Amino acid sequence: MPEEECPTCGEGFDSRRGLAVHHSHTHDEKLPNRECAQCGTAFHCKHERRYCSETCRDEAVSYEGENNPNYDGGMTETTCEICGRSFEYYPSDKKGLYCSDCVESEQWRHKRDIEGERNPRWSGGKRELDCETCGETVERRPWNINGEATFCSDECQYEWLSESFTGEGHPNWEGGDTGNYGKGWNRIRKLALERDGYECTHCGKSKEEIGRNPDVHHIVPVRVFAAARGFTKADAHYEENVVSLCIDCHRKADFGVMPKARLLSYVPAGTKYGPHVALPEGAGRVESGSRRAQRPESTVQ
């Protein structure tokens, strides 16, 4: 007599294995090997499992209250310190002091008194200072006091800057002009203007277009001769070292925008060349490809 019966069609089998093979091939599903602990339905699972579905597991197992693995005692009842009403709160959040209504409507937060000297960042308050330009008293907070001078307005600051950064006060001060150019300057200036036809040798502007005589520019500055040992200002005054320029071109030459080689190209070659090579740091040298100044045979040592 068969020991195993198919739960689907009722056919009998001598072994459990035979029944399982029959159920898989004939009914196209594996033979149930477990029973749901919640609904009692038979189901197949190769792993250890108590419930046939997630629904049955959720119905059988509760995670509410003490059944929750994170349960920490639940809510605690206390009394509101403002209105005296009882309310519940979770101790895991923070200590309950005020009910929800008082939190929304009452001024329960403590307002710190940190005005003036009681402020931890207090640094003395406003200070009275005198304006560096006009002497008027002004108030400044310590964090707004910087630099060596204080001013009551932008106008006073601009006036102070104009006075302080003029002449020797300017960071680019190099000693100012050399004063009177000395002996020979008026003569060499007149010769240069006549030689250049009273025109700018660079841009060609005439005396009439400039509105006055062109400037006469020293290619090697007078100050270089004045500062060099064994030379005087008068040594800078020779025809090959001066060139006529308009106001704009003169400014470019003074600021080094116009190369020395270009200026020398405007000067006709003569028989005398200044003592350029004897000056400090090669002041008389010019760029490659230009006519170089030649040192005369008799040079002051």
Q: List the total number of helices.
A: 9
Strand order, largest beta sheet: 1-2
**What is the chain-wise order of helices and strands?**
EEHEEHEEHEEHHHEHEHH
Helix fraction, binned, reads 10-25%
Instruction: State the total count of DSSP E strands.
Output: 10
Number of domains: 4
Overall morphology = elongated
Fraction of residues in β-strands: 5-15%
Alpha-carbon Rg, integer = 52 Å
- Category from helices, strands and their pairing: alpha+beta
Oligomer: single chain
Biggest sheet statistics: 2 strands, antiparallel
User: What is the CA-CA span between the terminal residues?
Assistant: 141 Å
- The average pLDDT score comes to 79
Low-pLDDT regions = 271-278, 284-301
Features of this protein?
two-stranded antiparallel ribbon, alpha+beta, 301 residues, elongated, single chain
Characterize the structure shown.
This protein is an alpha+beta fold. The protein has four domains: 4-65, Double Stranded RNA Binding Domain (2-Layer Sandwich), CATH 3.30.160; 76-100, no CATH class; 129-158, no CATH class; 185-282, no CATH class. The chain is built from nine helices and ten strands. The strands form five sheets. The chain has a two-stranded antiparallel sheet with strand order 1-2. A two-stranded antiparallel ribbon has the order 3-4. The radius of gyration is 52 Å and the shape is elongated. The termini are far apart.
